[in-house]
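User: My collaborator sent over this chain with a note saying "see what the structure looks like." That's all I know about it. Can you take a look?
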Amino acid sequence: MAPRSPEIAVLALIGVLIAAVTCAASDAPELAYIYDTDTVARDAFGTFLWGAGFNVTTVAMSAVETHDFSAHDLIVIGRDTGSGYIWGTPAAVSNVVAADLPVVGQFAGGASFFHQLGLYMSWGHCMGGTSSALTVADPGLTLWYQPDPVFIAPDGSVTTYSSGSDGRILNMGGAPPEVTCYGRTTTYTGHCAVSSEQWAGPFVALWSLYDLPDDMTTDGRNLFSNLIWFALDAADSIFADGFEAGDATRWSATTP
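Assistant: Without extra context I'll predict from the sequence alone. Here is the result:
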């Protein structure tokens, strides 16, 4: 038999690599990122989360009432989707809740959405404030090291932003035992920057700060993506290794 030509060998190798990437991308968790008019945040977080190992579908607020969330594993409530005690429409809230998926809310949009669920971790218990760092409550949680390490300084703090980020930070004074604060702001020690709350539904968490991934430190970005994995139950999940090489079709956009 004649030896295989170099060209055939290269094509065979390319085929194996394509198959491997396709397999990895198909295993990536499916996120729905809900946004309103803030396309800058939509694109920034969509790109960042894709790079962190997730398939991302962006969903406009005007499409939330009828969007089929059954193909997703987790929903991210974008920072611009609500304010005060208002979030979308009752039909939109019902459709998100009916999906029975973990939810990670951002800034005002997340706080306003969680108000609709009757949670303590919501707009009425948050205040405006800026923060660039937080103090870790429980450094033993997988949140701080899976899949990416977050550096905790000797004083127990983590620098999450390169400068102060605006926030709707959660007042922990009077918070019920169902609320867990993962990191209190270093500027307002009685307030929380990253929290979750047990309720009748799936896992819910609030990332109280506003700024974009490019404004975060490496530790801040790792913490944000780790929070998504944590919400998906990181102990039982595959991690992001290998997904970063997936193809760009993993990030799609749903428009009204």
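A starting point for your reply to your collaborator: Helices lie at 6-27, 39-51, 90-98, 107-116, 218-231.
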